[in-house]
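Hey,
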Amino acid sequence: VIAGIVGLLCHRPVIVWPWWSMVTAGVLWTVAGIVREVTGATGDLSTGRSLLPDMFALPGYVAFGIALHGLLAARGVDRERDLLLDGLMIATGASLAVHHFLVTPTLALTDSWVVARLAIVIYPSISMWLLVLAGRLAFSGLERSVASFLLLGGTASLVVGDVVFAAGEIGAIELGEAVLAVPYLLVPA
């Protein structure tokens, strides 16, 4: 977050609001992570699970999506239908795999709170659509920048982090907390 703010103040892009939207997403996700740790919401699928972290995390995803849309609009990518269709095909295929291995087992849990199960499932779904937007940005037009590909890599890390975190929450995989944090650390990097 601090590096993003310093970068914006130093470089001052022509269209600045999408970048401030990304900084906002970073702030919201940071707060969500801190609240998740403080409330112990991780690994708890009971009615006692705090949904307070989700009150910050979900708006963070929305802010990130708005930022990607703003960057796409600034580059005139909205009119490139072939890229949109390719992105939708990739997202659909990935969604089917995630649905089979993550969503179905999560929703099939009977001894857990349905709201907690939905909270776990929704993050990988949203991050996959964000990956489509980042892919459209990275592979659009003649001017392909390193920054666009880094943004794509960060968004892909978000998808991996969300899938691994959700799989850990439902007990599909057993990994240490440090390993689960690696994909999320790659997002801002």
